[in-house]
Write a structure and sequence with these properties.
The protein is α/β, with parallel strands linked by helices and about 475 residues long. The protein is about 25% helix and about 25% strand. It contains 5 helices and 19 strands.
Amino acid sequence: MKAVRSTHLDHAAGDHRDRGSAMILTLMVMTLVTVLSSTVAVVTINNLQSSGRSRQAAAALSAADAGIAQAVTYLRSSGVRDLRCSPTCASNAWGNRASPSTVSVPGAAGQSYKAWIEAVAPFPQNDPGVYRIHSTGSAANAASRPVTAEVSVTTSNVPKGVFARSINGGGAASVARESIFSTGCVYNRSKIQMVPGELDLAYGIPIGVHSSQIITDANGTGQYCPPTTKKPIHRGSDGSSPRPCDTAYPYDQDRLGGRLTAGDGCHDARMTGTGPWAKYYTTYDLDSNGTKDPSSLLQSDADLFKVFGFQTPVLSQGQIDSLRMLAQSQGNYWRYSQSSQWTNPDEANAVMFFDLTQTDAGGTVDLNDIEGFSRSPNLTDADPACTSRSLIIVIEGGNVKLNSNKKLAASLLLTSSAPDGQVLKANGNSEFIGTIFADTVNLTGTANISMDTCFLANVSPGLMDFAVTSYQENDRGLS
């Protein structure tokens, strides 16, 4: 009986040991599962957090890019003059580093951006000018991304002066501080009042007439006149003997000009230097000796465009269409020339577009009816009266006139060819400050056409080119 009892005790002890081992194994497995579960949970949470941070960072970067885009839009619509005070502009957040333009972006990500524009190389002192946009985008949970972009700013290659296919002088009309350019004949040169030696503010040379055809003191009309026309300034009175220099107009150029020599009354020491004269007057190697010679000669339209940097065509269809759309967006697009059919613009940088081709072909817009852009001529950029305003007037299929003591600062663009595209006789001592592009300019009245540094500093954004030249993201992580 003792032996049997011992066996039962042994079995009981073994069962206890087996149950203990099983419990230990179970606890070990449960611990392992718990550890694994915790690890998976931690990894999952970390992945979710990382994914969330990535989404927040992407949202912040998207907001920063929105700030860049909005800053470029500001430049295109407002220009750069009001950024002269950057980075401490008191009344313009786009030029204030300490208190930049701040905008909240709609959406669940809680996005916003702060952006301002730094004038690195201000325009027009530099052409092209360089402006750096600083934008910091933010999203929920303090995510942020700073980015920068540099924008090149320059004027388009539309002439800065009076440009027409033909020009007729007469009366007492004057042109001051800007030059005349033409791809046709310029008539009655002695009736175009220009102060000899006065500086052309846009090109840095003395003002003059530059034609790829002929400048004459005779009457006439039309774009072309023969080389034998009467009274050409660069030939004798008989129209045959050459005369490269006419001392009455020492800075004029046409296709009948020629090589200038020291002592002839037109040559100047500055023409052989490295300044503006070297660029605009030492263009031709007339004796084929490998050296460009001081010249009063422009042999063709291509020469005129190349020397002064004009584009071909002078006003492209793309530019015309762009100005048309800008005028439409401002509500300044009109199909009639009569002021009873249109209203004056109220934008600081306005574009008026008169499309007269369908309902008012050949109509004449009276510039006297345009209000809000009058000022005195010959203002400097620093003059308190020089406000940040600009006006472009585009006329398609019609003409324009300026009379009755009107003062107007604008870029006037007449896009049609003769018989339209005419700047008609101007009377009443009217003052036009700015640039003109037309088929025909009639200077037989008493108008004064001029340029000043205030106008050049307020070039309309519609006639400026903006190009983003670099973009950089600060990718050092979330802040």
